[in-house]
Amino acid sequence: MKKYWPSIVMLVIFEIVAVTLWLTKDNLFYLFNFSYIGLSISFGGFLFIRKYKHARRVVQLLVGLYMLIYLGLICNENMQIEGFWYYLFTGVFEAATIHYAVAKIVGPLIFGRGWCGYACWTAMVLDFLPYKIPKTPRKKIGWIRYIVFAASLVFVAALFLAKVGNIERIMFWAFIVGNIIYYTVGVQAPTELNAPRGCARIRTGICLLKQTRIRRARLASES
Questions:
Q1: Number of folded domains in the chain?
Q2: pTM for the whole structure
Q3: Could you list the residue range(s) of the whole structural domain that residue 89 is in?
Q4: Is 157 inside a domain boundary?
Q5: For every one of its 223 residues, what pLDDT tens digit does the chain have, with 9 covering 90 and above?
Q6: Is residue 1 part of a domain?
Q7: Is 60 contained in some domain?
Q8: Which distant-in-sequence residues (6+ apart) come within 8 Å of 64 by Cβ?
Q9: Does residue 159 sit within a domain?
Q10: Which alpha helices (H) appear in 50-192, and where do they start and end?
């Protein structure tokens, strides 16, 4: 039983977040959202402990499809970084801001880069490609993430400054178009750039947020 404690602790953490947000925001969605994600990740941990070889794929599909299909396409939530900027500018604490706060800022302090391996909907698809390990040293393309990060901020800021109407609809289409580009580039990256999951590493600039928090956590642990 002791070996299952990590999965149980993971579930408890997500349930604490779920109940806290549900009660403070008076919105049942948060209880469902974080309970589902917590159960999915804990179930994956259980399968991993049981040495099921596709445990990580199961978690990727459970969480990735939930965020991509349900939150993104059905609920019209832009889960990319442009959605984060949009909700941040409007002062609304919604899906994208919660998503980034939990998965990309706070999460790496506790789970490292677990998000990339178990919950990213881009990596979910790219990991099914036959390219796993680079045959030659990877090309240095990390600088692209800075461009993507800045471009997303400028894009959303320009919409607000220009007082464009129906920005929420624009955010929805930006989510769709953005993912089409990510997946298209992601399929080409392993062969053209010798970078398996390269698009997942630079997409929407999330690595800037995560790696900054990871570096700080490492420095804190070493001091």
A1: 1
A2: 0.75
A3: 81-212
A4: yes
A5: 778 888 898 899 889 989 998 998 888 988 998 899 899 989 998 998 988 988 888 998 999 899 889 988 998 888 888 888 888 888 776 666 676 666 666 666 666 666 666 777 888 887 887 766 666 666 676 777 788 888 889 999 999 999 898 898 999 999 999 888 888 877 776 555 555 554 455 554 555 555 544 444 444 445 5
A6: no
A7: no
A8: 119, 120, 121, 123, 124, 125
A9: yes
A10: 55-65, 81-90, 95-99, 107-111, 114-118, 121-126, 144-161, 167-192
